[in-house]
Every structure is written in structure tokens, then in C-alpha cells.
Amino acid sequence: MQASRRRRTAMSNTLYCEPVQKAEAYCLPRFQTLESHLSYINGSLGGNHSFQTYRDRYCMLEASSATGSYGVYHSPSTASFSSNGSTTCNQESQPYLSDIRQSPETTNYGSPISGSCITDDATDFMHKLKELETVMLGPDADFQESYDNSLASSIASSEIDSWRQMMLAIPRRDLKQVLIACAKAVSDGELVTAQVLISELRQMVSVSGEPIQRLGAYILEGLVARLGASGSSICKSLRCKEPASFELLSYMHVLYEICPYFKFGYMSANGAIAEAMKDENRVHIIDFQIAQGSQWVPMIQAFAARPGGPPHIRITGIDDSTSAYARGGGLDIVGQRLSKLARTFKVPFEFHPAAMSGSDVQLKNLGIQPGEALAVNFAFTLHHMPDESVSTENHRDRLLRMVKNLNPKVVTLVEQESNTNTAAFFPRFLETLDYYSAMFESIDMTLSRGHKERINVEQHCLARDVVNIIACEGIERVERHELLGKWKSRFRMAGFNPYPLSSLVNATIKTLLESYSDKYRLEERDGALYLGWMNRDLVASCAWK
């Protein structure tokens, strides 16, 4: 027992903390958006704390240009619609709003939605900011103008007055309540009511305001896209380019550093894998969404420090085009980076690329070899797999059954604790509003509202998921989260049993959270680990065998 404890302690010293001078060149952020992803807290927390990265203790990313000046702020919209009027969304084609270098602090509910083209002049910036708001949701947008005109003839002045009286009845013109009322009108097909509320909301939301105002801006975009069944027109009206891959990567880097959600997920998964593989000589890790490969940097270092020497490690990395775009190239970039790191730490290493969507993976793509101890990692990825409600193929359960037949020593699951898969539109809207509000609130605790990176982070890393959940249906709605209780049912049906969590991992994560706000909470219950923001669970992690 003492030997086992010493082994775990030695590995834990490097499992989550890596020397900057040796490891930072291999670290890049990895996201699914959350990606992402998280709950509503009543009232503004009003945090204006300075931005700190804490990389001295928990660096898992390379020192990218996250603190530099990034001049692109684009629309989060992923909504598009088919010629027959059905709602569709294209996650790979990512239209964005206009460019921005910095965001002014705007806290009044009367402030408009804001965005900007690249500018170094403050006055010009404010002008561009207002110009962008008009483009995104203002009456001059092509789609909005045609949509408004289509309803204008059907609304008498007396009806408008009655709708305005209804607006006054909403307590204190509470933005959250107006958003909910608008979503209810959209859900019930009450187009006139929805249009009046949309007009009111345009005067209340702002991407440079309070957390609920900022989230409300993206929610409003999703509602307009859903109501008009013409998201492609909205995307066209935004008239902007996608961000360069290095810019998107830098935004991911900032989000990774300012919020603990992703570090929590990767650390908990790595701890379970390290524990299961502590006595193995040949280890094969299958990662169903490897992205930048940063999760495995501390894992390789941990194995290098293992008493008795490191095992032979082989990683199969599964990828999609979104990660390839952010990375700026194919999986060979990940393989080369991890191989170089492994050589530095004298760890025998192989990389096996599988460039495809996780839902397309078949047994032949995994490169299974005899004599290897197998670990499978599902971190922030299974919610993208269509289930029985979307496709008769039900890739979500198919993958779990396929993995179970491989007899892995451990399978790790990390997912956002949210219910947006099979819920009807209105309850799904309420869940999205509640869930993502917490993320926007937590960002306020680290990045001030005037911070030039905040709009870029929220726009590129969070907003498109919000729009996808609200505006899209069917196979085009790819953000389909489930609560951990449902995931447990799926794993049990596939034949898995729970794998116990490591108390050492839990203690390490608690230490991590001390570097952030005291409003984050960590709780272990029912064999899983939950990270929450105040009174809301945000991310859940567990392991299976």
C-alpha cells in the first residue's frame, strides 16, 4: 500500500503541473464548446477583477498571443435555413460579426448591441460599435427590414399600444423576463407579440454590458433566426469574415485560462486514466476529440515521472474540421508536438491520427493492437453525437457499445451538466438562458467589461453554441447536452460499471479552484465529480470500466 501511495504521489506531482520552460511549447487549448456552457445567477456580480492566468502553477497551454491585441470580433451565428423553410445550421461555416480591438464599458439597459471594426481611435471605435449593432439587430439590417415590413401592415396602432402596455406590465423591465416572454411568443407562434418584444429587446441588450445583456444579445440573434426561418439572411447581413485560425485559437486560450471548466474536466479525466494505468507497460489512449492535444501534455509528463520508468504510450486522436481550422492544420501538427514532448521526457510514444467526426468512427479506425491496456476519453464530445431522437443510427449509443466491446480498463466522460437534447423549444430555451448566464457571470469575475479580449472570447467561444441551441432543429442542432443521470443510463445499458474516482485528484482540483473565485464549488456525489458556479452544476466528470 505504501508503494502504491508513493507511486500515485510521484505521478500527481506532474500530472497537472508542468514546467513552463519545458512544456509550454507543446500546449495548445482544446475546446468543444463549451465547448462549453453554464447557469444563470440572479443579479449582477459586477466583478472587475484583473486578468490572471496562473500559469506558474497550472500551465497546460503554450504561451500564445493571448495577451496581445486581437483585432477581430465576428458574429457567433451558425444559423442557416434550407430553401423549403426548415431550420438548419452549419457549425463548420462560422459567420461572425465585425472586427473589434476593445470594448467600452456599457452598463445601461438602454445601450445597444455593440461590436466594431478594427480601429485604434476611441471615437472611431464608438462609432463602429454602434454601426455594428445596427448591422446585427438594428432596423437597417436587410433581413430585419424585410421581416419588419412583412408584419407592419398587420399591426394597427391600437394593437401596438396594447403591446406597449403589456411591456410595462413586465416587472421593472427585467431583461431576463422579456427574453423569456419573447421566447414563449416564438414557441406559441404569436408573431406579432414576438416582433414587439424583439423591438424592445434591441434597446435592452448589449455585448458590452452586464452579463445578462451580453448573453441576451446572442439569445436575441438566435430568436430572430428561429422566428424568421432565414438564418442565412442574418448571416449575410452581418457582412464579415471568419477569424483567422490563430485568432480563434487565441480566444480559446483566454477562455481556458480565465475559467476552470476545461481544466477541471481534463484533470479529472487524466487522474482516472493515470490511476487505471499505473502498473501497465503499454498504454493506448483513444481520444474522441483530441483538438489541440493539450490534455495529454501533463499526462505524458506524469508517466515520465512514474517510479520504475514510463510505459510505452500510443494515442489515437480523432478530429473534426472545426478543430483543424482552429489548429491551422491537420492532425500531424498534434502528433509532431506530442512526439517532441515525449522525446524531451524520454517517454516511448506513438501517435495514430483518425481525421474524422466522432460519429463516423468505426472499429477499423482505432488501430487496436494486442497487448495494450486501453483507455478511452470522451471529454466534451459525446453531446455532439446524434442519438435516437435525431437518427435511427443512434451514434451516441453505438459508440458506447463499440467501446465496451474493446474491453477498456477505463473510459472517462466529461460533459456540461445541462439538458438541451430532446427538450421542446421553450424548456430548452429556459435551460440555455439559465446555463450560459453562469458562464457570462463567471467571466465578469476575471475579465472586466472593458477588457478588449472579453467580447472576442464570448463571441467566438460561446455565442455560436447559444445560437445553435436556440435557432436550430433536427440534425443541424449539434449542441445536444444531457444531464449526467441520462449519461449514466446510457453507459449502464452499454454494459459499463462505474470506476471509482481518486481522492488525490479531487484534492488537486480543489487547489486549482483556489486560484479562481470562491463562487466556484466542487462536489462529489453518486460516483461523479461536479464543478458548479454558486448554486448551479456546470460540468460533471466520471469514469467507467
UniProtKB/TrEMBL annotation:
Residues 471-545 are annotated as: SAW. PROSITE patterns: GRAS (PS50985). InterPro entries: TF_GRAS. Residues 333-365 are annotated as: Leucine repeat II (LRII). Pfam families: GRAS (PF03514). A motif (VHIID) lies at residues 283-287. Residues 252-317 are annotated as: VHIID. It comes from the Eukaryota. Residues 173-233 are annotated as: Leucine repeat I (LRI). Keywords: Transcription, Transcription regulation. PANTHER family: OSJNBA0084A10.13 PROTEIN-RELATED. Belongs to the GRAS family. This is Scarecrow-like transcription factor PAT1.
